[in-house]
Write a structure and sequence with these properties.
The chain is 25% helix and 26% strand. The chain has 634 residues and is α+β, with helices and mostly antiparallel strands.
Length: 634
């Protein structure tokens, strides 16, 4: 999952932060789980009707589940792969009716598991008919926030099905189909065997595991680009837009994505997908997205994502991040994230590998594929390091706890995130840590090996179809020791499992050092006051305050509106000017603020001027940092 960092960047003024419940034994290195063949019995028939999705934002489900008489439990998916949390949008399930042989069958929701529905199948009933409406009343983040606009719709199958407790995600099979909103609508998915008759499309029988892993994007304005081909294997970019002009993508942009596929394959030297489909919505109405799947990714950006170079560069790691998950997260998966059904809680404690290393490669690949310019790489890292080095919450909470706590940190309030720590920590501080691993390997092997070597051996292997091989922390340590014998257990104990007063410094040993100057950067713009006053604001309202900062000492808190600066109506530029002036006059900055209807004036005693983080070269040292983003291919 690509954590939605766009809002966090805005909050920080531009800082780049950017399933029957039987436990499966978690062995040190599980055998690969290949795509299972359909069971001898009939699959569950699943049909989702999207006719009313564009106009009324609903989807209607009809299922036929083979059953035997007696007690049965139906599950609505709770723990959603890629979202790492129990966020199945059950609150949007309505009109649930169960019938057998034409008669209504009563159901009862389990009071201790509201995603489980108990019923008794009457004698003589061999097929349970399930009907319900999914209300696209969007809420939260990720899949629960997306269904349809007038021109785009997205089906994530976990929203629109129930499954019986009698099997696992590997041996429960579905025969899925959808009805598109209208004849003009096109679709794209990783599901195979699609046959369209009128507005209805049916697909081959598929396991629940792979059904949940294969969303469908659809829309009226659609373009598809072939990015890569080798024999019968292909990679495609599928884009659905609300406005036709949002599909006027320059060939150079498509060239970057072609290079992305080449770069990823050149590094891993193997793939674990038959065909790969990037599914991308570009819309100012449909919420953004970034969810990984084995043979596709479900992504979403603003309407000008592909047509505005600044917007593309700002979110340039979206597709590369999710693409990397096909190797790291879907093929190789932490054992705690691969339970036998969708109801068992996840163990998210290895997300610093799953998401942290993918954050690293998502960003690195955005430079190797050319979407971002290599010259901006050092200041990109400076912004990340400076943010986490100025995070008070790190003094009480180890990085691993942010991963273990991911199920609620993903949905935590934005206010005081710096003191709480957030899900972004194991992504982006994880990125710094993996960069440090890279620098150790490069330095000790004289550049003959790098983190790429480990990634290739651990996540690459041999080309296969979509399979899962689980791993544990000990597997990661053993894999690194194969590349370079080192105290990796001690390394992770220091940076992941213990409280660390600073994030890993991954650049000094590679020829760079961190400095603060009065000059803003692309990653930390002029409106960012985090490293001076200790505040971030969005359109004049305080979103966070750094504990112990000048603003904190002056009594400023979150959700406070900045009304005036030194007697003049507030603007970011005026506050910047006041910071510059205070350095010369040594006069506290006067702020008129409003909080819960009460006005007051506070004085911030800060006299050190604007501060923005940069990386600068250390003279006479090798520049290994720049080697990290050098591409493999032309």
């Amino acid at each position: 999952m690509k954590r939605s960092l766009t809002l966090m960047r805005a909050v920080l003024g531009g800082v780049v932060l950017v399933v029957a419940l039987v436990s499966r034994p978690q062995v040190a290195s599980a055998a690969p789980v290949s795509t299972p063949k359909p069971a001898a019995g009939a699959p569950i028939t699943l049909h989702v009707d999207l006719t009313k999705a564009p106009s009324q934002n609903i989807a209607v489900t009809r299922e036929v589940i083979p059953v035997k008489p007696g007690p049965l439990t139906l599950y609505y998916p709770k723990w959603i792969p890629g979202e790492h949390a129990p966020v199945g949008p059950i609150v949007n399930v309505a009109d649930l009716i169960l019938t057998g042989n034409g008669k209504v069958i009563a159901w009862r929701r389990e009071p201790h598991d509201m995603f489980a529905f108990d019923l008794t199948v009457p004698p003589g009933v061999s097929a349970l008919h399930v009907g319900f409406t999914y209300l696209g009343a969007t809420f939260g983040r990720y899949s629960s926030a997306r269904l349809a606009t007038s021109n785009i719709a997205v089906i994530t199958w976990n929203q629109s099905l129930f499954y019986p407790s009698t099997g696992t995600i590997q041996d429960t099979f579905f025969k899925p189909s959808i009805t598109l909103p209208a004849a003009a609508w096109k679709y794209a998915t990783a599901l195979v065997g699609g046959i369209r008759r009128g507005d209805t499309v049916s697909f081959d029988t598929v396991s629940l595991e792979h059904l949940i892993d294969s969303p469908i994007d659809m829309g009226t304005h659609y373009r598809r680009w072939l990015l890569w081909q080798q024999g019968s294997a292909h990679a495609y970019l599928n884009v659905f837009a609300d406005i036709p002009s949002e599909l006027d993508v320059k060939p150079s942009v498509i060239g970057h994505y072609k290079k992305l596929v080449r770069e990823m394959l050149a590094m891993y030297r193997a793939r674990h997908w038959r065909n790969y489909n990037f599914l991308l919505t570009v819309s100012d109405v449909m919420p953004g997205e970034g969810i990984e799947h084995h043979e596709s990714s479900d992504d979403g950006g603003p309407g000008d994502y592909l047509t505005n170079l600044k917007v593309l560069r700002r979110g340039g790691d979206l597709l590369s991040h999710e693409f990397n998950h096909s190797w790291d997260g879907k093929y190789r998966m932490p054992a705690g994230l691969y339970p036998p059904n969708l109801q068992m809680p996840y163990d998210d404690s290895l997300l610093w590998v799953y998401e942290g290393m993918t954050q690293y490669y998502g960003d690195v690949m955005s430079y190797r594929d050319g979407i971002r310019k290599a010259k901006s790489w050092p200041n990109h890292l400076a912004a990340i390091y400076a943010y986490y080095d100025n995070e008070p919450g790190r003094m009480w909470r180890p990085l691993v706890d942010t991963a273990t706590s991911g199920p609620y940190l993903y949905y935590a309030p934005r206010g005081y995130a710096n003191e709480r720590r957030s899900a972004g920590d194991f992504y982006e501080e994880g990125e710094l840590m993996w960069l440090r691993v890279d620098s150790i390997i490069r330095a000790r092997t004289n550049g003959k090996k790098s983190l790429d070597t480990f990634a290739r051996e651990f996540f690459g292997g041999k080309t296969t179809g979509p399979i899962v091989v689980t791993y544990t922390r000990n597997d990661i340590i053993a894999g690194l020791n194969k590349v370079l014998p080192y105290d990796w257990a001690g390394f992770f104990h220091k940076w992941v499992y213990s409280v660390a007063s600073h994030p890993p410094d991954a650049f000094t040993v590679d020829g760079w050092k961190l400095v603060y100057t009065a000059t803003p950067t692309h990653a930390v713009p002029k409106r960012n006051f985090w490293y001076s006053l200790g505040i971030s604001n969005v359109r004049g309202t305080v979103a966070d305050v750094k504990f112990g900062s000048p603003a904190w000492k002056a009594g400023l808190g979150i959700n406070t509106r900045l009304v005036a600066v030194n007697g003049r109506a507030y603007s970011d530029n005026l506050l910047y000017d006041a910071i510059v002036a205070a350095k010369k006059t040594k006069t506290p900055i006067s702020l008129l603020v409003e909080h819960t209807g009460a006005y007051r004036t506070i004085a911030i005693a800060y006299f050190s001027g604007p501060r923005y983080p940069h990386l600068v070269r250390i003279k006479g040292t090798p520049n290994r940092l720049s080697e990290v983003v050098k591409p493999y291919t032309k």
